[in-house]
Specification:
CATH architecture: Up-down Bundle
Number of strands: 0
Number of helices: 13
Order of helices and strands: HHHHHHHHHHHHH
CATH topology: Na+/H+ antiporter like fold
Shape: globular
Distance between the termini: 6 Å
Length: 308
């Protein structure tokens, strides 16, 4: 349907992503990082390395489509989590979710791993512009997660809008787009170190996702059905609806491909942290993170081969 065909490059991209994730899981299981080390490495990637990489790929791209697509990407990024939330509400009875776990169940369905995992995967599949598109989509997702999502978890607690607006990813992409809009070119002495950092950022991010997954264990609370439904909502049902919408609405191939891939991301790492922070049982989202990410190794290649 879209522009990516089944090629050796595509298979290589998937094998690279999941191989690095597996290494991260293995490292954490066999020789675990401390919580402080994981937190510091995560901050290094999220606050420094990924923003530098995103500025570079944005500024180095002269494709004006990234500018024109910004409003649509943000809007779609807002709508897709709402679709997942609606599915969680509809199927919660089938999932036999306990009333006390409804907030964590619904929030986990909404929040996919669109930044820490989605951006590197989109970069691997679609190149530099795909990474920029993924960040803009993720900004829309963040808007809804830190408003409706936090409302679900906290019963109308005030949201920190300043932290949302000054997100390092968004700042990096805005600066990069401004660089392109002004018609500047990156000088070689500046572009080369940025490129070198960028080549290390994606594997570092994927390795850390694997390390975080290595901390989680199967949930022993008799919650196999809710976990299975969360995985189904994130990996199958939401992307199917998005694919159908992409067939109806006329959009360019790159836009549609990024949106489909981002909509199919597993339960986000932040769900367990936020659920615990708001005084909820983090066991359900933790197990859903683990099993949905492992399931991604099956569902995402099939989705891309069939629809992207």
């Amino acid at each position: 349907m879209f522009s990516i065909s089944v090629t050796s490059d595509l298979l290589a991209a998937f094998s690279t992503v999941f191989f690095i994730l597996a290494i991260g899981i293995g490292i954490q299981r066999l020789h675990p990082f401390t919580e402080d080390t994981l937190r510091q490495l995560t901050q290094l990637v999220m606050d420094i390395l990924l923003p530098i990489y995103l500025f570079y790929v944005t500024a180095a791209s002269t494709d004006p489509k990234a500018l024109l697509a910004t409003p649509k990407l943000i809007i779609v990024g807002i709508l897709v989590p709402l679709i997942s939330l609606l599915l969680a509400v509809i199927f919660s009875k089938f999932a036999k979710v306990d009333r006390t776990q409804q907030p964590a169940f619904r929030f986990s369905a909404m929040l996919g791993n669109t930044s820490f995992l989605g951006i590197p995967i989109c970069a691997s599949l679609f190149g530099a512009t795909g990474a920029v598109y993924a960040v803009l989509y993720d900004f829309g997702t963040s808007l809804i997660i830190f408003t409706v999502g936090v409302w679900i978890l906290s019963s109308r607690r005030i949201v920190n809008w300043r932290a949302l607006v000054v997100n390092p990813f968004i700042v990096a992409v805005v600066l990069g787009l401004g660089w392109v809009w002004l018609g500047w070119e990156l000088p070689e002495w500046f572009a080369r170190p940025l490129s070198t950092l960028g080549s290390a950022t994606t594997p570092m991010a994927l390795l850390l996702v694997g390390a975080h997954l290595g901390k989680f264990r199967s949930y022993e609370g008799g919650q196999a059905r809710p976990i299975a439904w969360l995985a189904a909502i994130r990996l199958v049902l939401t992307p199917i609806i998005v694919v159908a919408a992409m067939q109806i609405v006329s959009l360019d191939d790159l836009f549609a491909g990024v949106v489909i891939v981002e909509s199919a991301m597993p339960v986000g790492l932040l769900t367990a942290i936020m659920a615990h922070g708001f005084g909820l049982d983090a066991g359900l989202p933790s197990a859903a993170i683990l099993w949905s990410t492992l399931g991604l190794a099956i569902t995402l290649p099939v989705l891309v081969i069939l629809f992207v």
